[in-house]
Specification:
It is a single chain. By secondary structure, this protein is of the alpha/beta class. The chain is 37% helix and 17% strand. Strands 3-2-1-4-5-6-10 form a 7-stranded parallel beta sheet, with helices on both faces. Strands 7-9-11 form a 3-stranded mixed beta sheet. A two-stranded parallel ribbon has the order 8-12. The longest helix has 22 residues, at 84-105.
Length: 321
Amino acid sequence: MIVITGAAGFISSCLIQKLNSEGFYDLVLVDDFSRPEQNKNFQGKRYSQLVERDVFLEWIVQNHLHIQFIFHLGARTDTTEFNRTLLDELNLDYSKKVWNACVEFGLPLVYASSAATYGLGENGYDDDESALSHLKPLNPYGESKNDFDIWALQQERSPYFWAGLKFFNVYGPNEYHKKRMASVVFHTFNQIKETGGMKLFQSHNPKFKDGEQMRDFVYVKDVTEVLFFFMLHRKNSGIYNLGSGEARTFLDLANNTFRALGKEPQIAFIPTPEDIRDKYQYFTEANMTKLRSIGYHKPFHTLEEGVSDYVTNYLVSGSYL
């Protein structure tokens, strides 16, 4: 059995499709399944069991002999969440328990970290494990992810194979439920449908013009390819960046969405909401050398390729991956 936590979510549900396409069907999906709007993400996919998040750790004890691999991708991912108790419970303490179960029962583990750990990028975007304690995340979500990365590296006992993946700005099908946290491609598509235009955030940083804030946007299909690679690779444990390796502007993202729809861009700028203005990353770019050094050689989608595929094959038709 292959276990996937956060299975009703964005990246996890796309991973289910990737595993199905590779002939893996004995999948155990773990999540809080009380949200029917998200459960659409795994409908039509092949799996063997659904396990509720709150009984998953007990389930591992009873079923560990049958588990081949655990992808722990479930988390509270809202960067505007400031309830530290909730983030500690779901992102830190729960992950520690999953880690310890993997140690106890000899199970390989891949878990989701985040580029939010890098903060403003004062120390760059290198996945250097020795520098984790120097990172300055901008919000409690990023702090919870960095706290777990640091904790994992401090453990005397580790799963025989483990990897923590720092996801950068992932976009693609199955993210419709993320609302405010969904990608700019998703929001651009919907605003174009409703108004014919798109509103991007103004820059409140004199180093960047409006719309020229830059992020490392990575297509979810590339993310699932890397996750699948680690499931087969099972060596070189550690923490890795998972981005495209190339920063692009939000204008690039929006313009490519208009282009995929065959429309002329109509873009206006609005103030960045005050609750996130002082915690806003103006530039991110993953150093992908470490992942490449262990043998991952597949090319990543360019922004143009990824946006075109997402818009024309999923958003226009309302399809799921």
